[in-house]
Every structure is written in structure tokens, then in C-alpha cells.
Specification:
Keywords: Antiport, Cell membrane, Ion transport, Membrane, Transmembrane, Transmembrane helix, Transport. By secondary structure, this protein is mainly alpha-helical. The chain has one domain (10-444). It contains 17 helices and no strands.
């Protein structure tokens, strides 16, 4: 179902587009949680630490893929908003070519560098083999991950956030079933969890492909439209690369933090992994709103409706502040208790570590949510460089803070890296958004229609 976001109530459009995206993110995180819960409960703390130690790596890799395909989707959304169907199909074809190249290069490169990267991250020898085995299987499945993300990006660029949700639900349920089978029935250890994830992604990607091919007549490629254009490839990469780098730069900062946590041992690794997953769950609304804004802004930018962009940003900011306060209070009170879902904790040590993490970070959730607002709005407007600069500020903050605070404050100092990074990321984003809106408003004011 296509959805023109250039007409109608901005609040209604944003809310109804966000709901399927949020549900999709919830299901995606549910099966990630099930990986950790099943591994922790059936295989123990070291196995959970092995999976947890890959968290920043998977964030790096999946973030790059999400950024690249999301960047391609911005140009698709702008083409759709402008009513240019031929350009929309052309960018779809070019995105396909670029995704194939990305799949080959990433899979081969990461498999070759697997153990070397883990050793650079101070991964303890006691969990190195399990960690390398788990993440290696995830790397082997990257072509499928790229395919699903690109198909989802295409659907969302047309205003359809429901289709990716349907197939993600199917994938999530299948992943949970396979987790249980490949860990408890067929004892494959942590590798079983990785196989479950990849198989579930295969099913989701294949189903999504056939649905998109059947339902979107506007995307059916005509004869003569399969040609390759270096100019179009360059334009797609100018959007995709900065967005991919933005995620990667952020991930490098979290890898630096993870390396500091790894020095504290398996218990801290397991607790930090559990805390991170809980944080991701309770703040899922923020990236969901970001995805919505990228499409909403992209379509309205293509249509030249700048006033609607400003309205959408204001509405989303109010939602984010309220949600940030509520979510922060929830994890401040119950975050440590929720960690017991992941692993047996008879001594209460893991709960105490998670409590320390949440008490240091929960107050800053409104700032975290605001990052997605201004970053994705700028991306929807066609600016990929400034959002990447926000990632550079975030990386610098994490690097400085983990270096300065880890030794004197221990785990508390490591935990404070998140608030410092979130606030720092906003330093370039907010002022540039204000300046860009002023400039674009002057440019489009004479042509804008309501």
C-alpha cells in the first residue's frame, strides 16, 4: 500500500506510519532478546558474554547496511513525492546493483578479518571461539540482511510501513522457534542462535521480495531501464555513504566502550549486554520516529512543502520528550530487575551492575530521542554529511570519556559515556537544522502549496 505523506494531518500521518515501524522494531528486538535469553538460560554466563561481545560489531555492520539502504531510500522517497515514476524505477535498479556489490565486499572482508577484529577488542580467550563462531555465521548471512533492508527501504519510501512489519513478524516467530530447536534440541551452542537468525532472515527477505514484486506496479522495470549510470550511482552513494558512515562512526565509539568493558571480565560483559538490550527495547520509539521522519520529510521535500516539514518536526519533538521521561523513569526503577530475564543471577551481581548503568544513563533519554529527529530530518532533506558529523561528535565524546573516566570511576565512568555521546551528537545537528530550514523556506516560499 502506497501512502502519500504530502497531504493530510502531519500528526495522523506520523503516528500511523510510526506504529508499524515501531512494532517491526519491537519484533526485531524480541528475537534478538530471545537469542540472549535462551543462550543465557540454557548455555550460561560465558555463552551470553560470547553473544554480548558481538553486540557492537553487529551494530557496526547492521548500522552500515541500514544507513546505506536508508540513504538510497531517501532518493526513492523524493522521487515518489515529486511524482517522477521513471526516476523512481531508475534509482531502484541502481540501488539493486549497489547492494549486490556491497554484499560481496562486506561478506568476504568481514569473514577474513573476523578473529583479528575480536582480538583488537580485547575479547577474553575464554569466549573467543564461541564469539568468532557466532559472528562468523552472522557475517555469512549478510547478503540476505542487505536484501531485506533494501526491500524494506523501498517499501517505506513509498509510504508503506506495514509490509516490512508483516514479514518481520514471520521472521521473529521463526527465529524464536529455531533458537529453541538449535540450542536445546539440536545442541549447536551459540552457533545455533546465529543459524536461527540467518535462516529467519532468509525467509523474511524472500517473502518480502515476492510481495514487493507482485504488489508495486509502479516499481515494475520496463525494457531499457536496466542500464547502469555512474552519475546515478554517485548520487545514491552521496546519500548512502554518509548515512552508513554515521552509523559506523557511532559503532566504532561503542566498540571502544565495549573494549573497556571486556577488560572487566565475563560478568560485566554479560551485564552490559543485558543493559544495552533493555535500553534498546525501551527506546525503540525513537528510531521508529526517525524512520518515519526520513520518509515524511523526503516526500514533502520532493513536493516542496516545507511548512509541513517544520510541523512534523515539532510534533515529533513533543512526543520524544514525553516518551524519554517515561522510559527513563521506567529503567531507573526496574532496569536492573529486568536483567534477570537474561541469565540466572543468584548473587545479584548482574542486577547491581545493570542498576549502575541505568542510574547513570536514564536521565538522558530525551536527548537520545532528539538525535533521531534532527538526524533523520536532515537526511530526508538530502543532507547526509551533517548527520555523519553528528556521529563524529558522538565518537569523539565516547573516546575522550572512556579514556578519562574508565580508570578512576570504573564501570560508572564507562556508563557515563552514553549520555556524553548523546548530548555531543546534537551539537552540530540542531543548529544546522535551524539554518537549513531558514534557507530552504526562503527558497520554496513562493512555490509552496498547502
Amino acid at each position: 500500500m502506497q501512502n502519500d505523506m504530502t497531504k493530510g494531518s502531519p500528526l495522523r500521518l506520523i503516528v500511523f506510519f510510526t506504529i508499524p515501524v515501531l512494532l517491526g522494531n519491537i519484533f526485531q528486538n524480541v528475537y534478538n532478546l530471545m537469542d540472549s535469553i535462551i543462550v543465557g538460560r540454557f548455555l550460561g554466563v560465558n555463552a551470553l558474554a560470547a553473544v554480548g561481545a558481538t553486540g557492537t560489531l553487529t551494530f557496526l555492520v547492521f548500522g552500515w547496511i541500514t544507513g546505506m539502504t536508508g540513504g538510497f531510500g531517501i532518493l526513492l522517497a523524493q522521487s515518489f513525492g515529486a511524482g517522477d515514476e521513471k526516476r523512481l524505477r531508475h534509482y531502484t535498479v541502481m540501488s539493486l546493483y549497489l547492494c549486490v556489490a556491497m554484499a560481496v565486499l562486506m561478506t568476504a572482508g568481514l569473514l577474513l578479518a573476523n578473529r583479528g577484529i575480536l582480538k583488537l577488542m580485547n575479547t577474553p580467550d575464554t569466549i573467543l571461539d564461541d564469539t568468532a563462531g557466532y559472528i562468523g555465521i552472522i557475517y555469512a548471512g549478510l547478503p540476505v540482511t542487505i536484501a531485506y533492508n533494501m526491500l524494506s527501504s523501498v517499501s517505506r519510501s513509498l509510504g508503506d510501513s506495514r509490509t516490512p512489519l508483516i514479514f518481520l513478524i514471520i521472521s521473529s516467530v521463526l527465529n524464536i522457534i529455531l533458537d529453541i530447536v538449535l540450542i536445546t534440541v539440536i545442541p549447536l551452542g551459540v552457533r545455533g542462535a546465529a543459524y536461527a537468525t540467518v535462516i529467519a532472515q532468509v525467509v523474511s527477505a524472500v517473502a518480502c521480495f515476492f510481495y514487493v514484486k507482485k504488489k508495486y506496479e509502479i516499481l515494475k522495470i520496463r525494457k531499457g531501464e536496466w542500464g547502469f549510470s555512474w552519475g546515478s550511482a554517485g548520487r545514491l552513494l552521496m546519500m548512502g555513504l554518509p548515512m552508513g558512515l554515521q552509523f559506523s562512526i557511532t559503532a566504532i565509539g561503542t566498540m571502544m566502550v565495549q573494549a573497556a568493558v571486556n577488560l572487566l571480565g565475563a560478568t560485566y560483559i554479560a551485564a552490559f549486554s543485558a543493559g544495552g538490550k533493555i535500553c534498546n527495547i525501551v527506546t525503540l520509539l525513537f528510531p521508529s520516529l526517525g524512520v518515519t521522519l526520513a520518509t515524511y520529510v523526503g516526500q514533502n521535500m520532493g513536493a516542496g512543502k516545507i511548512k509541513r516539514i517544520r510541523q512534523g518536526v515539532r510534533i515529533t519533538q513533543v512526543i520524544t520528550i514525553i516518551a524519554g521521561i517515561v522510559c527513563g523513569l521506567a529503567v531507573f526503577i526496574w532496569g536492573g530487575t529486568a536483567s534477570r530475564l537474561f541469565v540466572a543471577d543468584p548473587t545479584g551481581e548482574i542486577k547491581a551492575i545493570c542498576d549502575e548503568y541505568f542510574h547513570a544513563t536514564a536521565w538522558c533519554y530525551p536527548f537520545l530521542g532528539s538525535i533521531f529527529i534532527y538526524r533523520n530530518t536532515l537526511q530526508g532533506m538530502g543532507d547526509g554529511l551533517v548527520p555523519m558529523l553528528g556521529g563524529v561528535f558522538e565518537l569523539a565524546a565516547r573516546g575522550i570519556m572512556v579514556t578519562v573516566l574508565a580508570a578512576p570511576l570504573g564501570f560508572l565512568g564507562i556508563s557515563l559515556c552514553d549520555p556524553g555521546a548523546w548530548i555531543s551528537a546534537l551539537i552540530p545537528l540542531v543548529p544546522v537544522y535551524i539554518m537549513r530550514m531558514k534557507k530552504i523556506t526562503k527558497t520554496y516560499s513562493s512555490a509552496e502549496t498547502e
